[in-house]
Design a protein that fits this description.
Elements lengths: L2 H14 L4 E3 L1 E2 L2 H9 L5 E3 L1 H7 L10 H14 L4 E4 L8 H12 L5 E5 L12 H17 L4 E5 L11 H17 L4 E3 L6 H11 L3 E4 L7 H7 L3 E3 L3 H19 L4 H5 L4 H7 L3
Parallel strand pairs: 1-9, 2-3, 3-4, 4-5, 5-6, 6-7, 7-8, 8-9
Helix pairs in contact: 2-4, 5-6, 7-8
């Protein structure tokens, strides 16, 4: 990918956040190509899904270099903008986070997600001041790379931070304001599904909001109507495919028949055509 092409894709990706974006999350080149073929204007990566395909659990179990290789394959497989899930940045310090942003920018991504979850039980979230410094470093690195879109994720809802719903909202607003002030383009709040709270967050922050859709969440149109600029799916599609695989496996084991396999069969010729490019 040329620098000119990447800059064009970055501008396109930014513009997509103005009209309510649905961002499916790919875990390999095949899933990315299928999402592109199905008409999606941009694609995200899922760090959890990539970890699963490597036989690992979620939570920064891959190194920066390992994740970079997987994301590079996804970027090379499609012609639409790709947003990379870089987890917590593969290092605690601002310098390490900046290096991570530069590393992924070099393979042609148009945006990155950076989360505030540490993965440590003793301190599940980075202290606010520390995360602000990390985001500021990510912003500077993103600007050096042509203005990559920076999506700041907070896990206040996923981790159930706060004794009450009010406390959780207040902490999310506190972090969200600080993250946006540090240079984030949007705030990502996975685990938030209450539409009234979504409306409050969007009104109070006044900036793009990213939510996660999937089973148990309101529909994508409902999330967009409540104020989400972007809805992503995380590892949801891959987990659904694991469920389908389990159903196919049970039938093959128990009866040796192909009903479940036939139900979702894409076709050999269609698959070859999908990868002909």
């Amino acid at each position: 990918m040329t620098l000119f092409s990447q800059l064009h894709l970055i501008r396109t990706f930014r513009d997509l956040h103005q009209g309510g974006l649905l961002l499916p999350n790919a875990w390999d080149a095949a899933s990315a190509r299928m999402f592109e073929h199905s008409g999606f204007a941009a694609i995200g990566t899922t760090s959890a899904g990539i970890a699963y395909t490597r036989g690992r659990q979620d939570g920064q179990t891959l190194s920066r270099a390992e994740m970079r290789r997987e994301v590079e394959n996804i970027v090379a497989a499609v012609r639409v903008p790709v947003n990379a899930d870089i987890e917590a940045g593969y290092g605690d310090s601002p310098a390490e986070v900046a290096q991570t942003v530069e590393t992924f920018a070099a393979v042609g991504v148009c945006g990155v997600n950076l989360e505030d979850a540490t993965g440590r039980a003793s301190a599940p979230l980075y202290a606010l001041d520390d995360q602000v410094r990390r985001l500021a470093a990510a912003r500077r690195a993103a600007d050096r790379a042509g203005g990559l879109y920076l999506n700041a994720r907070t896990d206040t809802y996923l981790l159930g931070v706060g004794a009450t719903a009010h406390d959780r909202l207040e902490e999310t607003l506190r972090r969200g304001r600080a993250f946006l002030e540090a240079g984030a383009d949007s705030l990502f709040v996975p685990g938030l599904t209450d539409l009234a709270t979504v409306r409050t967050l969007r009104t109070e922050l006044g900036r793009p909001l990213n939510l996660m859709g999937g089973p148990g969440a309101p529909s994508v149109p409902a999330l967009h109507s409540a104020g989400a600029s972007r809805v992503s799916l995380g590892q949801g599609v891959l987990v659904a495919l694991l469920g389908q695989t389990a159903r196919i496996a049970r039938e093959l084991r128990d009866t040796g028949t192909y009903g479940a396999l036939q139900d979702e069969f894409y076709g050999f010729e269609a698959a070859e055509a999908l990868f002909a490019r």
